[in-house]
Amino acid sequence: MPSLSIHSKLPLVGTTIFTRMSVLAAEHNAINLGQGFPDFMMNAGLIGLVNDAMKKGNNQYVHMNGLALLRERLAEKIENLYAATVHPDTEITITPGGTYAIYTALTTILQPGDEVIVFEPAYDSYIPNILINGGVPVLIPLSYPSYSINWQLVKKSITPKTKMIMLNSPHNPTGMVLSSDDIEQLRSIVRDTGIFILSDEVYEHLIFDDLPHESMLRYPDLRERSFVCFSFGKTYHCTGWKLGYCVAPDALMKEFRKVHQFNCFSCNSPVQFALANFIQQKEQYLHLGAAVQQKRDFFQLLMQQTKFKALPSHGSYFQLYSYAGISEETEMELAIRLTKEYKVATIPVSVFYSKEKDDKVLRFCFVKKEATLEEAVNRLIKFS
Ligand code: PMP
Ligand code: GLN
Questions:
Q1: Mean pLDDT for all residues in the chain
Q2: 172, 235, 268, 316, best to mutate for ligand 1 pocket (most atoms within 8 Å of CB)
Q3: How far away, in angstroms, is 369 Cα from ligand 2 center?
């Protein structure tokens, strides 16, 4: 029998840091401020709506593009928030999470050799998603410690092969958010080009300090070239439900759906019935930024008792802390030691760079119960 050997499509890729740190946290009975998920109960009303949908018999496939009522209500929401008219039949597709929406958009667009501009630190799925589609990531570092975009560098990195620019605001892992200036720079760079945009906006409502969310959907000239990806998991504190959606213009979405229909086809139906109803309760997402900001501020205040130094976070589930000057350990070494010895798990930011980079910064997820944050900080105070 011939030997069974796989020619790996991702030879340099290991297991994602989120799984590694969550497993380590469980092994060492550590508080998990690593992987981004809340430890408090999600909205009971939404759980009830899913139960109702199941009991009513809404348990079979819905339309491959997603439940029509949910798409209609998302279109209304987008019109209200971003003054954009999005056609629910042709321009929105419900997906099994934001990650899948991003992967599908890249698979839809990329041909071998196409270049994709990616800002680092970058969410860990982006680069493997590009590589598996034969694309070439063109890496641009965000400027430490503000993690702002150096648009001069972006301009210089554009070549005839540039197919796409990937954006993520609010940004994971840094909490950076795009400003209106960033949008103007982006508009001038892509004008008169064939460059697509992939905009990861899973944290659209998790934005602090009264900053607006600069969605690509607000700008017709950007929207016409964008796949905009969202996640219900982040907005409704149900990351394990893995439901999201992609918004893109008709012609782009037509191609996206060709990929989608033979990969997932259609997503969990009772959750879609429930969300179509729940999404009408606007206060659930309109007040989310302020509620999560309180957690950020609570955590920052507690952390002042430790030696860690906060970097700015204006959105997302995350806050970065520098330990420069306190320890010479690499981020990975320290993250592992904090988990094992101090029983607090974090994420080393170095994993979000493809080349070696170690600014001595760790990512903390603060979307946790106050008691969890207090206990974690009590443990971290001992670290010096
Ligand atoms: N993009 C970013 C920046 C994320 O942090 C995450 C994780 N929530 C996702 C995409 C994926 O979201 P989902 O869990 O819906 O796949
Ligand atoms: N988005 C989450 C984070 O950044 C985790 C998602 C995942 O585990 N893939 O922590």
A1: 97
A2: 172
A3: 18
